[in-house]
Every structure is written in C-alpha cells, then in structure tokens.
Amino acid sequence: GAVVSQHPSWVICKSGTSVKIECRSLDFQATTMFWYRQFPKQSLMLMATSNEGSKATYEQGVEKDKFLINHASLTLSTLTVTSAHPEDSSFYICSARDMGGAYEQYFGPGTRLTVT
Amino acid sequence: AQSVSQHNHHVILSEAASLELGCNYSYGGTVNLFWYVQYPGQHLQLLLKYFSGDPLVKGIKGFEAEFIKSKFSFNLRKPSVQWSDTAEYFCAVRDSSYKLIFGSGTRLLVRP
How far is B73 from chain A (nearest CA, A)? Predict the structure, then answer.
C-alpha cells in the first residue's frame, strides 16, 4: 500500500529556533499534500494544503509566515515552524493525495514537536 | 462551512459487545465520507469510505458504516468488538476541494 513518511518523528527545540519537518510519499506521486496539527486528545486540524510547484493554501487563522510550506517535488513537502514558541508544541501530521486511483489521502506517522 | 460532529467522546465496552459510533456532517453538496482509526502510538489508518452507491459500506477488521443522506449521518458499527479495537476513531468528510474535515474523535476502550 501507499506509504507516507515523516522526518523527524520527534524533535525538541529551544524557543526562538526554527524546525523543519519533512513529508515524503514513498511509492507514489503526490501533487497535493496536506498538513495537519493535532493537539493532545483533540482532532486533526487542517493547517494548509501544499501543491507541488505553487504556493500553499493556508486555512483561516494559520499564519503563513510562521508555518512555511514548500512542496518542491512530487514526493516531498516540508513544513518549517519558524521562531518556534512553546505554544507551537504539538503533533504535526501530513497526508499525501495519490494522483492515481480515487485520490485517496495517505497519512504519515506524525512528528511530535516540543518547544522548550 | 462544513463540519463533522462525533457525539461520543469516550466509549467503554467489554469484549464481544456491539459498537456504534455516531457521526453527523453538515455539507450540502456531494461528499465523500471516511472513518479513520488511530491505534495508540500509530498513525491514522483508513477503516472505510463512502463515495457513492450502496450506502452500507464494509471496511477492514469487521467494521461497517451506513450513509443515511436524509440524516446527514455516517455511523460506524461493529457487531462484536475485540480488545485490539481499543483506539481513537475519527469520522471525516471530504468536500469538492479534496480537503478532509475531521470530527473530534471518539476514544474507544475495550475491556478484555
């Protein structure tokens, strides 16, 4: 089946630094990837839609300058949390939409970010 | 804006009990409906999906869901749960822009 990986799986950083999270579709091409945020014991909240070769589309209330998204190839999207603060600590999950088939979304395992 | 409601936040069952998790959505157009499961420490996995056709959808691991258009519902069912079904279950709706909107999730604990 389709596999999506994320790297790193867990990262701890100091307040004020930037962190980059990678999302890769391993065995399929994805023109569209999605980034979600999941707070403890809560649901997934869509942050942005990442389209290969174009600017990401951010959901209302999500700061585009804070959460930089780059989708440089059909298999890789990156999310950079800039000038991270403790309130950015969360679980970040990406999904990739398979160009073939029924455009299903496949989810990555998530990245836990802790900002100290 | 479209939304998804899951009425049960926590459900506790004994093994072999029957399960039904409620899901209602608000979206007037054509929707695709999904149920995902997240086992402890694991990533989201697709349980089943409804695009069109037979409103009774069968998924993996003995789960099924019924789409009732008049009630805007897509409830998840399993006749007999197992301890290994302990997980969090998310209902989701996908609109014409292919965005997935998730419900708040239901934590299921199955006691052996």
Answer: 19
